[in-house]
Automatic annotation (TrEMBL), chain A:
Protein family per UniProt: Belongs to the binding-protein-dependent transport system permease family. MalFG subfamily.
Intracellular or extracellular location(s): Cell membrane
Keywords attached to this entry: Cell membrane, Membrane, Sugar transport, Transmembrane, Transmembrane helix, Transport
Pfam family, one: BPD_transp_1
The protein's name in its UniProt record: Maltose/maltodextrin transport system permease protein MalG
Organism whose genome encodes this protein: Thalassospira profundimaris
From TrEMBL, chain B:
Pfam families: ABC_tran, OB_MalK
GO molecular function: ABC-type maltose transporter activity; ATP binding; ATP hydrolysis activity
InterPro entries for this protein: AAA+_ATPase (IPR003593), ABC_transporter-like_ATP-bd (IPR003439), ABC_transporter-like_CS (IPR017871), ABC_transpr_MalK-like (IPR015855), ABC_transpr_MalK/UgpC-like (IPR047641), Mo/tungstate-bd_C_term_dom (IPR008995), NA-bd_OB-fold (IPR012340), OB_MalK-like (IPR040582)
Family: Belongs to the ABC transporter superfamily.
NCBIfam families assigned to the protein according to its UniProt record, in alphabetical order: PRK11650.1
UniProt keyword annotations, A-Z: ATP-binding, Cell inner membrane, Cell membrane, Membrane, Nucleotide-binding, Transport
ABC transporter domain span: 4-234
Name assigned to this protein: ABC transporter domain-containing protein
Length: 282, 362
């Protein structure tokens, strides 16, 4: 029986409401970003600026020494380097780790997995002091490497867990078939397991990039100038001056969202195709 | 293609002996079927040969070469899995070509070989499809094609037809028989289906609890089972057994008191087990010469055969109901009393208290 008209309307209304709840803050951020700062402080509040301006974007994107644009552009660069490096390293290590947890026998292996997850659950606050001392001793404070290492320690357990649960759903015969066909274990993973797990791999990459892109706490503590400050810290800096320029902050927020959105756009196909082919059994 | 020999192969899983010293040699080009009840170790034995499991003891030779220390990928043995285990993200052509790719063959070499196999198995029109676009039978053929690709020494098949419906199973069985004939490939085939075993095998290996009970041609096993287990396992419906005793003349006597005219003297007053297959019982006249009498409990008409269950009402309760298989349509009715005799004295099988066959010789 096709759904009744009332039901259809209810479903669409629900979906629209959900979309609004998610989209409205972003829309408001965008409106703020194209308003002048005087405009944002006038009362009563206006929903749409009289004279929309791209001035905020201009002052962030056109490079000038000792300006917000300098710290913003450097921060974008730092964030991209750190997020990609941390994600790349974590995924490269998580794949063999997840495969081993999922496929190879041994009680020790399972305990190790639980230990990793338990440590993952520790709040950053508990770890930040010892980590700071270590980084300081190694002379790594205020470098990309410090944050890459710390982010790897967050991403690796997460990605391992995510991939392991996906590998678990792949029938064991699909491990053994390539080995019978003359592949070694690594080739079996590369040619058979990873392509089948591609959607999970895509999700792990997406989530890892997002986690490191959004990370603030370690970024704030381990960096102190434009050489290594990440985008979240740079945006916070914009708010920390004598006068908070909300228009500028909003524009920075919108721009900071662009790289993850672009990434999601390109990975969308992988994620969706995975939903469709996941049901295929060997 | 190559011969294979197993000597005293054992396998222990966490203290439990699963394979208890198997000796077996399989000739080049032979199709050998492993049968046995579930849990008998037939699939484990196949996995030991493939290298997917390591043996706990003994030796495996492929031709002249000892292979039990080699990894599965180095043994040059192909395997068809029960689940097919096709690579879901690859096309049919890529699935078949995968072993060649792993062997480092050139692109043109791979294409040539996959086309050749595609022609043999009539898969060419499906070459660009992925496994999910194929029917069960087509998937099965792709799995076989992938096993053939490398021209392996041995092809192992682990219950390859059990996921197919009955009609398709018969077709694929004949196709496998044809492939084996044409390719002269050495094959080891695991199944629990007797019909597959009897029709495909050059030789059948009957396993129980990790031990080889008998190795022989299908008719050997049918006509001369070496023990009571094999006698009961091969043949459908299973053989009827009775405990018999010997009278003072040394003749075998059924619990019903009927003496059997058998040229067999098992020795002084020893109880033995006698067996006769359901298809070797025939209707007899009601003149007192019949070997068995019974009341019909159930009748199943298959057209080609009539399966009848009889209650004979003597001896051990477990032995008093017997199966009979008549050829063609036989007009017996439920509750009717029928007389049976055994077609030929050769149809009797006699086993001692240990279950071992006693040859019916004077």
């Amino acid at each position: 029986m096709p759904p009744s008209l009332a039901k259809k309307i209810a479903i669409y209304l629900g979906a629209a409401l959900l979309a609004l709840v998610i989209a409205l803050p972003v829309l408001w951020l965008f409106i703020m970003s194209i308003s002048s700062s005087t405009h944002l402080t006038t009362l009563p509040l206006q929903w749409w600026p009289d004279s929309p301006t791209l001035e905020n974007y201009r002052s962030l994107l056109i490079y000038a020494e000792n300006s917000p644009s300098q710290s913003f552009l450097y921060a974008i660069r730092n964030s991209i380097i750190i997020a990609l490096a941390a994600t790349g390293l974590s995924i490269c290590a998580a794949i063999p780790a997840a495969y081993s947890f999922s496929r190879l026998p041994g009680p020790g292996r399972k305990n190790l997995l639980y230990a990793v997850i338990a440590i993952f659950m520790l709040p950053p606050v508990a770890l930040v002091l010892p980590l700071y001392t270590v980084m300081s001793a190694l002379g790594l404070l205020n470098t990309h490497v410090a944050l890459i290492i710390v982010y790897c320690s967050i991403l690796l357990p997460f990605a391992t867990w995510l991939l392991k649960s996906n590998f678990d759903t792949i029938p064991g015969d699909l491990d053994e078939a390539p080995i019978i066909d003359g592949a070694n274990r690594l080739q079996a993973i590369w040619y058979v397991i990873l392509p089948i797990a591609r959607p999970a791999l895509g999700a792990a990459v997406m989530m890892s990039v997002l986690l490191s892109w959004d990370e603030f706490f370690y970024g704030l503590l381990f960096t102190n100038d434009i050489r290594s400050k990440t985008i979240t810290v740079a945006i916070a800096d914009l708010a920390a001056g004598r006068v908070a320029d909300y228009g500028l902050i909003s524009a920075a927020g919108i721009l900071a969202a662009v790289p993850p959105v672009v990434l999601a756009f390109f990975m969308q196909k992988t994620l969706v195709s995975g939903l469709a082919s996941g049901s295929v059994k060997g | 293609m190559s011969s294979i020999s197993l000597s005293n192969v054992t396998k222990t899983f966490g203290g439990a002996d699963v394979i208890k010293g198997v000796d077996l040699s399989i000739e080049d080009g032979e199709l050998v079927v492993f049968v046995g009840p579930s849990g008998c170790g037939k699939s484990t034995l196949l996995r030991l040969i493939s290298g997917l499991e390591e043996i706990s003891g003994g030796e495996i030779h492929l031709g002249e070469k000892r292979v039990d220390h080699l990894s599965a990928s180095a043994r040059d043995i192909a395997m068809v899995f029960q689940s097919y285990a096709l690579y879901p993200h690859m096309t049919v052509a890529d699935n078949i070509g995968f072993p060649l790719k792993m062997a480092g063959k050139s692109k043109t070499g791979i294409e040539e070989k996959t086309r050749e196999i595609g022609t043999i198995l009539q898969l060419l029109p499906l070459f660009d499809r992925t496994p999910k676009q194929l029917s069960g039978g087509q998937r099965q053929r792709v799995a076989i094609g992938r096993a053939l690709a490398r021209d392996p020494q041995i092809i192992l098949l682990d219950e390859p037809l059990s996921n197919l419906d009955a009609a398709l199973r018969v077709d694929m069985r004949m196709e496998l028989a044809r492939l084996h004939r044409d390719l002269k490939a050495t094959m080891i085939y695991v199944t629990h289906d007797q019909v597959e075993a009897m029709t495909l095998a050059d030789r059948i290996v009957v396993l129980r609890d990790g031990i080889v009970e008998q190795v022989g041609s299908p008719l050997d096993l049918y006509l001369k089972p070496v023990n009571q287990f094999v006698a009961g396992f091969i043949g459908s419906p299973r053989m009827n057994f009775w405990t018999a005793t010997t009278n003072e003349n040394g003749d075998l006597v059924l619990p019903s008191g009927v003496a059997l005219p058998l040229p067999c003297k098992p020795g002084a007053l020893q109880p033995v087990t006698v067996g006769v297959r359901p298809e070797h019982l025939v209707l007899a006249a009601d003149d007192g010469t019949a070997t068995l009498q019974g009341t019909v409990l159930s009748v199943e008409h298959l057209g080609s055969d009539t399966f009848v269950q009889l209650h004979c009402g003597f001896g051990d309760p477990a032995q008093s109901d017997i199966n009979v298989r008549f050829g063609g349509i036989v007009p017996v009715r439920m509750g009717e009393r029928v007389n049976l005799s055994v077609a030929s004295p050769d149809n009797w099988h006699i086993f001692d208290t240990e279950g071992l066959r006693i040859e019916a010789s004077a």
